[in-house]
Backbone:
């Protein structure tokens, strides 16, 4: 599956050169069974990750209640580097910038976004965007998330433009309602924004809204007070809770507690073909468990050329405590 690179900075993958006779593997191999991201997890709940598709350096943001010792959720930032063993092909995920120290300044503004976003209430479902530097853009870095500071969850955003400091947080009025609205994500060509809400029938469904402007003008888009038509996605949504949509190219991944899964919330995917989303498919027991699997995202790490990296959270036994982050390789 080819990834869209129109919105993001392209960061080259630098690999140490080695003669063929001294290396067995010329690319990394993502694991086919879930691996706990132990270096990033805590004894508290760690979930709701966002991981922009930037290659082997991943600016990882996720929600955690570690700072409040189990009380409210804040969004934390941890740089994650992808490395692989040329003798075994094993991929290692390292906390820190590793050999990507030249990009520290580029990502050093992200903590300022979190200082703007985090409150004494709950902040969930982060989504991080890097603009391609188009002459027509009106933001450089944009951070979307949901907060229940006003009672119900509302989708907010903050951004930078020609400055290292993030703007005051603002609501996206045309997405929000008097109910809970969370987990914004964009389709592949940035013509629609998707999210989940419990505005109908007391369960969470997945909705979409067409965007009026080019993706380089998102600040202008989100400040527009024009009422938009909110469309319920009938194919993906069910009579049960369908949450946490995340779109990567032609694939949407999400969590649902509909019947027929392994138990609790399971992870599903849908393929966009012939101008429509296909029927959801359960990832099956090699990813899902009798416990809860939540907030999946897909990342191309630029190391495994066959599989995409799936990062998600689960409260299955064997972790550090509560929800932990896990990863593995998937192919569609």
Residues:
């Amino acid at each position: 599956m080819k990834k869209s690179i129109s919105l993001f900075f392209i960061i080259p993958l630098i690999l140490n050169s080695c003669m063929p006779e001294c290396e067995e593997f010329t690319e990394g191999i993502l694991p086919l069974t879930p691996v706990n991201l132990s270096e990033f997890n805590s004894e508290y709940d760690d979930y709701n990750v966002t991981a922009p598709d930037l290659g082997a350096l991943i600016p990882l943001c996720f929600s955690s209640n570690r700072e409040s010792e189990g009380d409210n959720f804040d969004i934390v930032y941890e740089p994650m580097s992808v490395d692989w063993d040329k003798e075994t092909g094993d991929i290692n995920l390292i906390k820190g910038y590793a050999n990507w120290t030249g990009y520290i300044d580029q990502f050093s503004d992200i903590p300022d976004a979190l200082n703007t976003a985090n409150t004494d209430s709950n902040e969930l479902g982060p989504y991080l965007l890097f603009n391609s530097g188009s002459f027509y853009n009106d933001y450089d870095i944009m951070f979307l998330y949901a907060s229940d500071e006003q009672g119900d969850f509302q989708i907010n955003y903050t951004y930078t433009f020609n400055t290292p400091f993030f703007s005051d947080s603002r609501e996206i009025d045309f997405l929000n309602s008097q109910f809970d609205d969370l987990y914004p994500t964009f389709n592949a060509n940035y013509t629609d924004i998707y999210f989940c809400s419990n505005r109908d029938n007391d369960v969470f469904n997945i909705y979409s809204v067409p965007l009026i402007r080019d993706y380089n003008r998102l600040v202008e888009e989100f400040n527009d007070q024009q009422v938009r038509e909110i469309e319920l996605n009938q194919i993906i949504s069910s009579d049960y809770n369908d949450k946490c949509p995340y779109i990567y190219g032609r694939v949407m991944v999400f969590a649902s507690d509909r019947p027929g899964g392994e138990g609790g919330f399971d992870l599903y995917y849908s393929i966009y073909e012939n101008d429509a989303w296909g029927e959801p498919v359960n990832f099956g027991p090699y990813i899902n468990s009798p416990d809860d699997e939540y907030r999946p995202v897909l990342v191309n790490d630029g190391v495994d050329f066959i599989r995409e990296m799936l990062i998600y959270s689960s409260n299955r036994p064997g972790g550090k405590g509560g929800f932990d982050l896990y990863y593995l390789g998937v192919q569609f």
The CA atoms of residues 282 and 315 lie 18 Å apart.
